[in-house]
Design brief:
Layout lengths: L7 H10 L13 H21 L9 H16 L6 E7 L5 H16 L3 E5 L7 H10 L15 H13 L5 E4 L2 E2 L4 E2 L6 E4 L4 E6 L18 H6 L4 H11 L1 H6 L4 E6 L5 H17 L7 H21 L6 E5 L5 E6 L5
Parallel strand pairs: 1-7, 1-8, 2-7, 8-9
Antiparallel strand pairs: 3-6, 4-5, 9-10
Helix pairs in contact: 2-3, 2-4, 3-4, 10-11
């Protein structure tokens, strides 16, 4: 197929030509074995991209990024319980695409069962958020920030997936962003048996609470005009330091898709809105002004994560403005 080398040195030479930056000390299998998997998996990977209507250009990332990552994750699995991998990234950073491709690769290439769980699918129902908005602060009607998820449901799912028998069914919740509500439980996706890995993705997965002193100053017009007394952001921060901490403590590994800057969120989220418009016939799609206001809800914690999380994430995938990984950084070993 042109890319397949006949030796280890040729293999890494080819990857070098593609500007791969995978850390050498994270290799899980030999270069020759990776080359063999590349040959066998490329046709199916290309079909997956086509079936999911993903950019065909991602085919070049199979050797450069996805296959080495899948190999490394496969090496981390254990027999006693699922490996829980947190995948953090701002809106539009590519978390869903990464999980889709990784889950397929782990299954087809390594014979591992993978369950993908999205923090978005743990959103409280619309009626529950309306109650929070009435009792605590109006901004809690808008989904997204800590405090608007069903943390207890997330913990229950992780427990259930870890303890399930071979033929047991665990219903995986789904949230419909077009209707801004959780779908009925009868329509949740069934997962049979116990997975080898759980890919738990979300914009604030693994996040930590900010120091209290940092909450005083507003970071944008939304906070300045609609949360002048810091009631909303204080509540959000408290939730992050309480129930969410218990949820994120379940992570075995934390991977971060690090965007170039906060300013990229609007551009990338706009692309998501266009896709939503194409699939939902316009239902639930935000215009430019609505989108600008919506992402302000996420700005404070996104900025904090960009500053704080790289110091403790197990792997950091540095993205450029074209959403391409340009560097992979492994967490430094503790002293």
């Amino acid at each position: 197929m042109g890319l397949l080398p006949t030796s280890s040195s040729q293999f890494y030479g080819k990857l070098s030509d593609m500007n791969i930056l995978w850390p050498n000390n994270l290799a899980a299998v030999s270069a020759v074995e990776l080359a063999r998997r590349l040959e066998s998996l490329t046709p199916g990977f290309s079909r997956l991209l086509s079936d999911r209507q993903l950019p065909i250009e991602l085919k070049t990332e199979l050797a450069r990024l996805y296959l080495p990552l899948a190999s490394w994750l496969a090496k981390q699995t254990r027999q006693t319980r699922p490996l829980i991998v947190g995948i953090n990234g701002a809106q539009g950073s590519g978390k869903t695409t990464l999980c889709t491709l990784l889950a397929w690769l782990l299954g087809e290439g390594f014979g591992l069962r993978c369950c993908v769980l999205s923090l978005d699918d743990l959103y409280l129902t619309r009626s529950e958020r309306l109650l929070l908005a009435k009792e605590i602060h109006p901004l809690l009607e808008t989904r997204g920030v800590p405090g608007t998820h069903d943390v207890a449901l997330g913990l229950h799912l992780l427990d259930s997936l870890g303890a399930t028998a071979t033929d047991s069914i665990t219903p995986i919740p789904r949230f419909d962003k077009a209707s801004d509500d959780r779908v009925p439980e009868s329509a949740w996706d069934p997962f049979r048996g116990r997975p080898d890995l759980i890919l738990f993705e979300g914009w604030c997965v693994g996040a930590q609470a900010q120091p209290q002193a940092e909450l005083a100053a507003a970071v944008n017009a939304l906070e300045l005009d609609e949360d002048p007394s810091a009631v909303w952001r204080t509540y959000v921060n408290q939730q992050l330091g309480q129930g969410y901490r218990a949820l994120f403590d379940r992570l075995d590994l934390l991977l971060m898709l690090k965007i170039p800057s906060w300013e990229m969120v609007y551009r990338w989220r706009s692309n998501q809105e266009r896709l939503l418009a194409a699939t939902s016939k316009g239902c639930g799609v935000m215009d430019a002004a609505q989108l600008q206001r919506f992402i302000m809800h996420y700005e404070r914690l996104t900025r904090y994560q960009l500053a704080e999380m790289p110091g403790r994430a197990d792997l950091i995938f540095v993205l450029n403005q074209a959403q391409r990984v340009t560097q992979i950084i492994k967490k430094a070993a503790s002293a």
